[in-house]
Structures are given as structure tokens and as C-alpha cells.
Amino acid sequence: MSVLRLFILLSFLYVSAEMVAQEKSIVMESSNDTLLYGNYFELTITLNNVEADLPSMYFDHFTITSGPNISSQYQSINGAVRQSKSYSYYLEADEEGVFTIPPVEIETANDLITSNPISIVVSPNPDGIITTPERKQQSFFFDWFSPMQEFPDTPTKPTPPAKPDPLKKKRKKI
After folding, report:
1. All domains of the chain, ordered by start, with CATH?
2. What is d(CA 28, CA 23) in angstroms, rounded to the nearest whole number?
């Protein structure tokens, strides 16, 4: 009987340890995959469950106009811990062409984690059109600083049709 109890206990510990261990990953995203020359885009590198900092970044064929801008999140629910750290850069192309931003590699104590590469197409811009990348909306329960959401006007009761004017009936034309 004690062997069975030990087996059940070890099985439970193994399954719970698997549930607590989270997948480590590095995700690289860009706000645009195609861009007009002279414009910039946002490149975001997110470290999920990686306890390391992003090394200094250098981007061939691009100039960093802003960054790194860093944000982090930490979540602990029923013992399951998830954390992420995002680094965002605003990059402007130095020339026209198709460029690939190579994957980011971070070596931890146990393994080597690699991100995905990103390809950016920079097209000619003869008209000098300047655009800005769209900002991602943050999902907060309540945002104190955003304008209040406009609600549509409440429907009003329909008005009954107008009654005929009693004076018009009394008038007689000669």
C-alpha cells in the first residue's frame, strides 16, 4: 500500500511541476512589413518567461529614432507565474530595399532561446508621404486618462402624428 501512495504522490508532483513550468520564448513583431522611405516603424521584442535582459541592439540599414522603451508584466495565478518584458524601438530605414532583421538570441543557464527574424520592405517615396505607425491599444480595466466613451443618444418616444388644425375646417373659401 505504501508503494502505491508513493507512486501517486510522485505522479502528482510531476504533473504539478509541469503545470508550473512555463514556455520560454522571444517574439519579435513590427508595426509594418512594408514602409515608404523616410517613414519609421515600431519594432517590439518581447521576452516571455525569460529571466534575462535584452543585449544592446544594433540594426543594419536602420537608424534608431527612439528606444529602447521598456515595459514589463508579471502575473501570478494559483502558483503559476508568467512574466514578460517588452522592448520597443522606433526605426527609420537608411535606404530603399528589402532588409531582414536577424533573430535575437539569448543564452540562459539551461538553454538558448531564439526569436523569429523580421523582413521589412522599404519602397521609394517620391511624393514625400509621411505616416506614423499605429499604436497598440492597451487593455486596462479602466483608463482614467482617456476620453469618456460616447454613448449613443437614448431613443425618444415617437411623437404621434399632428392633429389637423381645427381652424382650417371652419374657414370657408368664397
Report:
1. 22-131 (2.60.40)
2. 16
